[in-house]
Amino acid sequence: MTEPASLTVDVLVLGWGKGGKTFAAAMAAAGKRVAIVERSAAMYGGTCINIGCVPTKTLIHDAELRRESDDAATSFAKAVTRRDALIAKLNDVNFHMLADRDTVTVVDGQARFVSPHEVEVTPSAGGRGTNEVLRIRADLVVINTGAEPVRSEIPGADLDGVYDSTTIQHAEPFPKRLAIVGAGAIALEFASMMRGFGSQVTMLVRGDRLLPREDADVAEGVSKLLRDDGISLRFGATVTEIVRSEAALRLTLDTDTGAEHLETDALLFATGRRPATAELGLDAAGIDTDEHGAITVDEQLRTSASGVFAMGDVRGGAQQTPLSLDDHRVVLDAVTGEGLRRVSDRVAVPATTFITPPFASVGITADEAKQRGDVVRTVMVPVAGIKAMPRPKAVGDPRGFIKFVVDARTDLILGARLLHVDAQEVINLIALAMRAKVTATELRDGIWTHPSSTEALNEVLGQLGDPH
Ligand SMILES: Cc1cc2nc3c(=O)[nH]c(=O)nc-3n(C[C@H](O)[C@H](O)[C@H](O)COP(=O)(O)OP(=O)(O)OC[C@H]3O[C@@H](n4cnc5c(N)ncnc54)[C@H](O)[C@@H]3O)c2cc1C
Ligand SMILES: NC(=O)c1ccc[n+]([C@@H]2O[C@H](COP(=O)([O-])OP(=O)(O)OC[C@H]3O[C@@H](n4cnc5c(N)ncnc54)[C@H](O)[C@@H]3O)[C@@H](O)[C@H]2O)c1
């Protein structure tokens, strides 16, 4: 059946992100006619599934399993093959999750507003939806177009061997030496992963330490882990030029002591991801953005255009898949529920940076607590010294630390920083305890499975220092 060139639906979702696809499925299940526009078939399911969380954690897992004696390039190539097979499957599942519903039309193309409730689609080839719908109208529009890597403008940034977080996942040839610009989650995860595969990794950090928003002892603990792993940390270094010199890249670095040069086989730019709004024609819809190009929204994710919502990375703020997912709950509640949910209702949102072992965090730091005048009790202990935590030793990686910040008056957890095996799981329990107002003493006296990483709470929370 040939699709009409224009389509009117109840709900139009732009971009196949976590929040948008879940919202689209919910609205379709409620009997609404839904259209979802995705510009690339390789992105059915969005960033997380195709180029973000899942493929990188697959590669990280394989890097962790590699033995020192395994050939680096072969190990990486095998891991990429496994990654690609998994991602192809997930992409397909995501496509069918929406395309198989009677009331959903999947449109392959790039969407651009022509008015608040109408978009024009520039069709894209190679998809499995329709690329014949050129205009779509809906009373309810959700923008979920995500974010894109910030592109460097320095000379040489477009040379072969210069990667972003997407292209490096298929780096060819495997870089024996890798320089990384940036020190956020992407830089840290790829540094740890590529080191695991056998690269000599140099992180080029423009500041004077890692994790500037963390307590100094936490930042130092993470830095030490990376250094002990053989990753070189260069602080106060900014790349100003890249030139090809025979088979290598020659970087010019601006440092505190003047210009320096560094030879590397490859360079990864991990300097942030910017909301994908430039091509959306937001002016035509009267949709406002901030100075970073993020769509401005209210507490219920309404944009400045009535009936148009934004969710996920495109609206600015922390970029994490579970936040995009929770955004869809807020919008669903606003349009079909009681309208009670607000994004500011969120408390104790956990996050994990998947270095090896993972670094997980929730709540505030000791410095932040002191700045706001709280009297706190803190503890920071190395994992290797926690007697009642055999699991990291059993799996052969007893590195890292655990830090807690507890309110001295109420005994409630204000924040936790975990660097250890299983930290990405344990942090969820601590976040739940914070939301449910479970005290540090109750966590300390909890009955946990054995041997597990959670049971560290029995010992660590028994070592809180005096109030200060
Ligand atoms: C390498 C990497 C690793 C990450 N790891 C993690 C992790 O471990 N844990 C975590 O929580 N978060 C992680 N993130 C962040 C997480 O992936 C994002 O926060 C999340 O995927 C954002 O989802 P979203 O809903 O905003 O939209 P996205 O999933 O980004 O989807 C947006 C979609 O819109 C499409 N699009 C854009 N413009 C248009 C247009 N004009 N017309 C049509 N379609 C358009 C895009 O092609 C894309 O498919 C990672 C990110 C990266 C890059
Ligand atoms: N596990 C996770 O939850 C996970 C994993 C990967 C990415 N993400 C998210 O994806 C987003 C993008 O990640 P990211 O690491 O690229 O961004 P980021 O904003 O977290 O970090 C960017 C880094 O680049 C540096 N930087 C920026 N411009 C620079 C320049 N011109 N020269 C030198 N350094 C520069 C910054 O100082 C910072 O260290 C983040 O929001 C991140 O939280 C999350």
Automatic annotation (TrEMBL):
Top-level lineage group: Bacteria
Cofactor binding description: Binds 1 FAD per subunit.
Entry annotated with the keyword Cell division: no
InterPro entries, A to Z: FAD/NAD-bd_sf, FAD/NAD-binding_dom, FAD/NAD-linked_Rdtase_dimer_sf, Pyr_nuc-diS_OxRdtase, Pyr_nucl-diS_OxRdtase_dimer, Pyr_OxRdtase_I_AS
Keywords recorded for this protein, A-Z: Disulfide bond, FAD, Flavoprotein, NAD, NADP, Nucleotide-binding, Oxidoreductase, Redox-active center
Disulfide pattern: C48-C53
Cofactor(s) in the UniProt record: FAD
Sequence similarity: Belongs to the class-I pyridine nucleotide-disulfide oxidoreductase family.
The protein's name in its UniProt record: NAD(P)/FAD-dependent oxidoreductase
Higher taxonomy: Bacteria, Bacillati, Actinomycetota, Actinomycetes, Micrococcales
